[in-house]
From TrEMBL, chain A:
SUPFAM superfamilies: Periplasmic binding protein-like II. It comes from Roseiarcus fermentans. The lineage of its organism: Bacteria, Pseudomonadati, Pseudomonadota, Alphaproteobacteria, Hyphomicrobiales. It is found in: Periplasm. Residues 1-30 form the signal peptide. GO terms for cellular component: periplasmic space. Its main location: periplasm. GO terms for molecular function: polyamine binding. This is Spermidine/putrescine transport system substrate-binding protein. It comes from the Bacteria. Keywords: Periplasm, Signal, Transport. Pfam families: SBP_bac_8. GO terms for biological process: polyamine transport.
From TrEMBL, chain B:
Belongs to the binding-protein-dependent transport system permease family. CysTW subfamily. This is Spermidine/putrescine transport system permease protein. It is found in: Cell membrane. It is a multi-pass membrane protein. Its main location: membrane. Residues 65-274 form the ABC transmembrane type-1 domain. PANTHER family: INNER MEMBRANE ABC TRANSPORTER PERMEASE PROTEIN YDCU-RELATED, INNER MEMBRANE ABC TRANSPORTER PERMEASE PROTEIN YDCU-RELATED-RELATED.
C-alpha cells in the first residue's frame, strides 16, 4: 500500500467529504469478545484471522477503509467511537495524535513488537514526546516502474524532469505529498528538510514540477488504470506502486524497477488503538495487534499480499526468492527509505500542486 | 379553501423541507466554514475573508474556475448544435420507431461513467481503434498522440456523455410544436430560414435553455472525465476542491472555492437569462414579452 488514495476507486476523493458528515457507518457492537478492526479489505481475509479467533475466542468484525483521507475525516467526525483497532498510514500519525484520536500503547502487552526492524522501531512518526501511539505493521516501497522492453536505460528521478526522449510517455501519481517529495529528491534537497521546506525550496520544486508536467502523458489516480496504461504502451515509465510490476510481469511483459540512489519513497501502515477503547475491549485489541505482528499472520501476509511485516519473525522462514520479492533479503534497502509525512505547510503543498497542474 | 391550503401544505411542505435539509443546509454549512481557517487538524471558527482573498488573488484558482465555466459553456454549445437536428428528426420525422430511437439515445447513460471513459480510451489511444484505422488507410504513418490525453479528447468525451441531456430537452420542445404553425407561416409567405429563425427557434427556446443549463451544470461538476481523458492538463476546479477537502484537510479554503464557483455559475446563468430575455427567443423561453 501507499500513502493516501490507495484503492482502485476514482470517486474516492469525494468519500472524505461524505464521511465527514459521519454518515451511515456504524458496525454493530455485541459481545465483549467482539472487536471492530478498521482495515484494508486485503488484510483481514478469513484465512488470516480465523486462527486468531480460534486461539483467543475474540471475534474480529472488520470495516473497510476506502482511503487514508476518508478514514481520518471519518474519525474526526466521531467515527473512532465504533472502532477498537485501526490501520492508518504512518505518514499521517501526527494528525491523529494532534487530534487526540489515538491512545498511548503499552508495549508490555505487545511482546511481538520487540522483534521490529530498527528502522521501524525507532521511527519518530509513531511517537510524540517519547510516547508510542502506533506501531509499524507492514510496509513496502513506491518507486520507478518501467517497461524494460521500451526503454533503453534504467531511469532515475531525472527522467521525469529533463530531456525529452520519453516525453509524453511518462506518468506521475496525482498526489501532492509524493509528487513534491520526488521533485525535492531530484533537486537534492536534504531528506531531513523535505517536509519542512521553506519558500525558496518550494519555489525550486514548483519550477521542476512545471517542467515535469510538460513531459507527462498523464497524472494517474488509480493503480489499475496505470497498469492498463503500461500494458497498452501509453506509458513506459511512472512513479508507481508495485502491482503493475507484478501483474504485467506475470502476463509476460518485460517490466522492471528502479530504486534511485537519491532515496526511495517508502510506505508503512501502522496499528493504533483509538482513544476511549478500554476494559476487555482494550485487552482484546492488544491481543489482535500482537497477533498481526506475529509469525503466523506474517507468513500469510508474506505470500498473500505479498507484504513484509515490520517484525523479523518470519524472515528466516521464507525462501530467498520470497524474501527478495518483499524486499527483506537485504535489509540494507531500508537505509534508502524516505518516509513521507504530513508536510508542515500541507495546504500550501496541495495548493502548489494544483497550481502546477493548472500551469 | 382551507382544505385547499391543507392539501397544498401537505404536498409542497415535505418537498420544501427535503429541499432545505438536503440541499440548502449543506450549502449553508459550507458557506459558514468558508469563513473559518484551518490550523493543522482543527477548523478554527475565527471568521475572516482570508480564504476568499486567497481564491481571488490566486491566478490558478481563477483560471480553474474560468476553465470550468468555459468548458460548461463550450460543451453546452456543441451539444446544442448537434442535438437540434437530432431532436427535430426524432420528434417530427419519425413515427414508428420513436421510442426505440429515444431508448438508443439513452443507452450510453445506462453504462457507468467509467465504462464510457474506458471505451473512449480504446478508441482514441495511441494503439487505439482510430489511430490503427488511420495508419491502415495510410492517412498517417505515426499515431496521433493528442487524440487521447488532451483537451480535444476531453471535449469529445464530454460532448458524447452529455448529448442525451440536450437532445431530451429539445425533443420535448419539438414534440409540443404544432405543425400547423409551419403551414400557416409558409402560407403567409415565410421562407424556410424565416420559419426557423422566427418560429421554430423561439418556440423551442425553452428546451434549448433547459438542456443548455443542464449540460452546463453537469460539465462544470464533472472532474472524472477530464482527469482520465485529459492527461496532464486534466485538472479541474472540482478536483482541486476535492484535494483540499480530502488530502489537505483544508475545508475552509475548499469551501471558499466551492462557493466562489457556485456564485460564478449563478452569475453566468443570470447573465444568460438577462441577455436572452431581451431577445424574442428568450421571451419565449422565459415567458415574457
Amino acid at each position: 500500500m501507499a500513502i493516501g488514495l490507495r484503492r482502485r476507486d476514482f470517486l474516492a476523493a469525494a468519500g472524505a467529504t461524505v464521511a465527514g458528515a459521519a454518515l451511515p457507518w456504524s458496525p454493530a457492537r455485541a459481545a465483549s469478545t467482539e472487536i471492530v478492526w478498521s482495515t484494508w479489505n486485503n488484510l483481514g481475509l478469513p484465512d488470516y484471522i480465523d486462527p486468531f479467533t480460534k486461539e483467543t475466542g475474540i471475534k474480529v468484525d472488520q470495516t473497510y477503509i476506502t482511503t487514508d483521507d476518508e478514514q481520518f475525516a471519518r474519525f474526526k467526525a466521531g467515527g473512532a467511537a465504533d472502532v477498537d483497532v485501526f490501520v492508518p498510514g504512518q505518514w499521517e500519525m501526527s494528525r491523529y495524535i494532534a487530534s487526540n484520536l489515538v491512545q498511548p500503547l503499552d508495549l508490555r502487552k505487545i511482546p511481538n513488537a520487540a522483534h521490529m526492524y530498527p528502522v521501524f522501531r525507532d521511527n519518530a512518526l509513531n511517537k510524540k514526546d517519547g510516547i508510542q501511539y502506533s506501531l509499524p505493521y507492514y510496509w513496502g516501497i513506491n518507486t520507478i516502474v518501467y517497461r524494460a522492453d521500451l526503454m533503453d536505460e534504467k531511469p532515475d528521478w531525472s527522467v521525469f524532469f529533463k530531456g525529452d526522449k520519453y516525453k509524453g510517455k511518462l506518468a506521475m501519481r496525482d498526489y501532492a505529498v509524493e509528487g513534491i517529495m520526488i521533485a525535492a529528491l531530484y533537486l537534492g534537497i536534504p531528506q531531513t528538510e523535505i517536509f519542512s521546506m521553506d519558500d525558496r525550496q518550494l519555489a525550486e520544486c514548483k519550477k521542476a514540477l512545471i517542467a515535469e508536467k510538460a513531459l507527462l502523458r498523464t497524472y494517474w489516480t488509480s493503480i489499475a488504470d496505470l497498469t492498463n496504461l503500461f500494458a497498452t504502451g501509453e506509458v513506459v515509465c511512472a512513479f508507481s506502486w508495485l502491482p503493475p510490476y507484478y501483474d504485467l510481469t506475470k502476463r509476460g511483459i518485460k517490466m522492471a524497477l528502479s530504486l534511485p540512489k537519491e532515496g526511495v519513497p517508502s510506505w508503512c501502515d501502522v496499528l493504533a488503538i483509538p482513544a476511549g477503547v478500554e476494559g476487555e475491549r482494550l485487552e482484546a485489541a492488544y491481543k489482535l495487534v500482537n497477533y498481526l505482528l506475529g509469525p503466523e499472520y506474517g507468513l500469510k501476509l508474506a505470500y498473500g499480499g505479498p507484504y513484509a511485516q515490520s517484525t523479523d519473525l518470519v524472515r528466516d522462514k521464507l525462501p530467498p526468492e520470497q524474501q527478495e520479492r518483499i524486499f527483506i533479503k537485504d535489509p540494507a534497502v531500508m537505509d534508502s527509505f524516505v518516509w513521507p509525512q504530513i508536510p508542515r505547510r500541507y495546504n500550501e503543498w496541495v495548493t502548489m500542486w494544483n497550481e502546477v497542474k493548472a500551469s | 379553501m382551507d382544505g385547499g391550503r391543507t392539501f397544498l401544505a401537505a404536498t409542497v411542505g415535505p418537498v420544501l423541507v427535503a429541499l432545505i435539509v438536503l440541499c440548502l443546509a449543506p450549502l449553508g454549512v459550507l458557506l459558514v466554514v468558508s469563513f473559518f481557517r484551518v490550523d493543522f487538524v482543527s477548523i478554527v471558527p475565527d471568521p475572516s475573508l482570508h480564504n476568499y482573498a486567497q481564491v481571488l488573488s490566486s491566478g490558478s484558482y481563477r483560471y480553474l474556475i474560468a476553465k470550468a465555466l468555459m468548458s460548461g459553456a463550450t460543451i453546452a454549445a456543441i451539444t446544442a448544435v448537434i442535438a437540434y437536428p437530432v431532436a427535430f428528426f426524432i420528434a417530427k420525422r419519425i413515427r414508428e420507431v420513436k421510442a426505440a430511437l429515444l431508448t438508443a439515445l439513452l443507452i450510453p447513460l445506462y453504462t457507468g461513467d467509467l465504462v464510457r471513459i474506458f471505451a473512449w480510451r480504446l478508441i482514441l489511444g495511441r494503439e487505439g481503434v482510430l489511430n490503427s484505422f488511420l495508419i491502415w488507410t495510410g492517412a498517417i504513418d505515426r499515431p496521433i498522440e493528442t487524440l487521447l490525453f488532451s483537451p480535444t479528447a476531453t471535449t469529445i468525451v464530454l460532448v458524447y456523455n452529455y448529448l442525451p441531456f440536450m437532445v431530451l430537452g429539445l425533443w420535448l420542445s419539438f414534440e409540443t410544436l404544432d405543425d400547423h404553425l409551419f403551414e400557416a407561416a409558409a402560407d403567409l409567405g415565410a421562407g424556410r430560414t424565416t420559419i426557423l429563425l422566427r418560429l421554430v427557434l423561439p418556440l423551442t427556446a425553452p428546451g434549448l435553455v433547459a438542456g443548455a443549463l443542464m449540460v452546463f451544470a453537469l460539465v462544470v461538476g464533472d472532474f472524472i472525465t477530464p482527469q482520465l481523458i485529459g492527461g496532464a492538463s486534466g485538472v479541474t476546479v472540482i478536483s482541486a476542491i476535492a484535494d483540499l477537502f480530502g488530502a489537505a484537510f483544508d475545508w475552509p479554503l475548499g469551501s471558499a472555492i466551492a462557493w466562489t464557483l457556485l456564485v460564478a455559475m449563478v452569475g453566468v446563468v443570470a447573465a444568460v437569462v438577462v441577455i436572452l430575455g431581451r431577445t424574442p427567443w428568450g421571451s419565449a423561453a422565459f415567458g415574457r414579452g
